[in-house]
């Protein structure tokens, strides 16, 4: 009943030329009908991506957004309203790189989630523990805390209007992937916590896995009952690999 989502996070990669080449290659892939597809390019390339991907099922996302929808004196920021105006349908919020390198707190991430929803974007709320937190047995505590601010404000129904991405920090860009069982354990924990609040809505929430997803591990991950697709970093910069991951969902 939940449609899988396969999303690509291009991070700070690409030039106009390399993006053009990647878009051409993406446009010629064979995309599965039953899977939602999205890429999050650097903001500079959102227009180019929207134009070139119009004839494909791939939608475009921002990698982050401002905490407010209204225009203002916020040099360097991009509002969710501007992302929507540029044709985006999704925006990532709370990616671990934003949390770790740019000091985004749960409160800030919640404001971004709220602003995105208010603009008609689907926020992808990224959560996940570091290696030290996992080693200390704190995975559940950390992930529950990261979800809580959004749940307090919007409930499970609001969360279901977006997407949850479970991305263990130790698996992002490291080549270390959570095993399907490790990932499923956390996805099931998330869904069980949501179900305690609202069982019906909890069944609708798309929970995707991120952390070194590749063509050769995607099928086993996506076969897990609570893993509804993937958020793919490095491998999404290769159209053939991203296509193979999408077809595994
Ligand atoms: C990410 O950036 O969200 C990510 C999961 O990266 P990678 O697939 O490269 O680990």
TrEMBL record:
EC top class, as a word: isomerase
UniProt xrefs under InterPro entries: Aldolase_TIM (IPR013785), TIM_sf (IPR035990), TrioseP_Isoase_bac/euk (IPR022896), Triosephosphate_isomerase (IPR000652), Triosephosphate_isomerase_AS (IPR020861)
Entry keyword set: Cytoplasm, Gluconeogenesis, Glycolysis, Isomerase
Molecular function GO labels: isomerase activity
Subcellular location: Cytoplasm
Documented EC number(s): 5.3.1.1
Pathway per the UniProt entry: Carbohydrate metabolism; erythritol degradation; Carbohydrate biosynthesis; gluconeogenesis; Carbohydrate degradation; glycolysis; D-glyceraldehyde 3-phosphate from glycerone phosphate: step 1/1
Keyword match Translocase: no
Location (main, coarse): cytoplasm
Catalyzed reactions: D-glyceraldehyde 3-phosphate = dihydroxyacetone phosphate
Binding residue positions for substrate: 9-11, 173, 212, 233-234
Similarity comment: Belongs to the triosephosphate isomerase family.
Cross-referenced PANTHER family: TRIOSEPHOSPHATE ISOMERASE (PTHR21139:SF42)
NCBIfam families per UniProt: tim
Biological role: Involved in the gluconeogenesis. Catalyzes stereospecifically the conversion of dihydroxyacetone phosphate (DHAP) to D-glyceraldehyde-3-phosphate (G3P).
Record's protein name: Triosephosphate isomerase
Record gene name: tpiA
């Amino acid at each position: 009943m939940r449609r899988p989502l396969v999303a690509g996070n291009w991070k700070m990669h690409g030039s106009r030329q390399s993006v053009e080449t990647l878009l051409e290659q993406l446009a010629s892939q064979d995309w599965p009908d039953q899977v939602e597809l999205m890429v999050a390019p650097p903001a500079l390339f959102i227009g180019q991506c929207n134009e070139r991907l119009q004839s494909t099922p791939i939608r475009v996302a921002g990698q982050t957004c401002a905490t407010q929808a209204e225009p203002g004196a916020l040099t360097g920021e991009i509002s969710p309203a501007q992302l929507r105006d540029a044709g985006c349908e999704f925006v990532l919020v709370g990616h671990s790189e934003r949390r770790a390198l740019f000091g985004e707190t749960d409160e800030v991430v919640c404001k971004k989630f709220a602003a995105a929803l208010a603009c008609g974007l689907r926020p992808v709320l990224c959560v996940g523990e570091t290696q030290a937190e996992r080693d200390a047995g704190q995975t559940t505590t950390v992930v529950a805390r990261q979800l809580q601010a959004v749940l307090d404000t919007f409930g499970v129904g609001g969360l279901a209007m977006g997407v949850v991405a479970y991305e263990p920090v130790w698996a992002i860009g490291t080549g270390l992937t959570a095993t399907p069982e490790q990932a499923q354990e956390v996805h099931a924990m998330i869904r069980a916590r949501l179900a305690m609040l609202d069982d019906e809505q909890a069944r609708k929430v798309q929970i995707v896995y991120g952390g070194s997803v590749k063509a050769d591990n995607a099928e086993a991950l996506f076969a897990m009952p609570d893993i509804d697709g993937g958020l793919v970093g490095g491998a999404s910069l290769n159209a053939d690999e991203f296509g193979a991951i999408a077809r595994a969902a």
